[in-house]
Amino acid sequence: MLGKLFAELDQSTPKMIISKMESLTQEQKECIRVINSLINRSERLHRGLIQSVNSIEMVQHRGLLLGLLGDLAR
Fold first, then answer.
1. 15-19 — which CB contacts under 8 Å span 24+ positions?
2. 16, 69 in Cβ contact below 8 A?
3. Number of domains, the chain
4. Domain coverage including residue 33
5. Closest CA relative to residue 7, chosen from 64, 58, 69
6. Partner of 19 at 20 to 30 A CA spacing, among 27, 58, 62, 71?
7. Residue 29 near residue 35, CB atoms below 8 Å
8. How far apart are CA 30 and CA 51, in angstroms?
9. Cα separation values, 6 from 13, 14, 25, 55, Å
10. Which residues contact 16 (CB under 8 A, 6 or more apart)?
């Protein structure tokens, strides 16, 4: 599930994310909130749980878009 999410984020821009989020149902937005919450809680628990073999730029890009997803899902 995370792999599919990250693959989508890797190919998206903030503008694309906003457009996609506008078409989601409340239930789908709730799923995004839950995923975002799990990622954030895991990272707070132990940074080692969030490992990445990607470049810093890609990790930052994903982080930016995950934050945007979380904001739009509220």
1. 17/65, 17/68, 17/69, 17/72, 18/68, 18/72
2. no
3. 1
4. 1-73
5. 58
6. 58
7. no
8. 25
9. 13, 14, 20, 13
10. none
User: CB–CB of 73/30 below 8 Å?
Assistant: yes
Predicted model pTM: 0.72
What does the chain come to in residues? Answer: 74
Contact between 12 and 64 under an 8 Å Cβ cutoff? The reply is: no
CA distance 19 to 48: 33
Q: Which amino acid is at 22?
A: E
Place of tokens 């919450």: 37
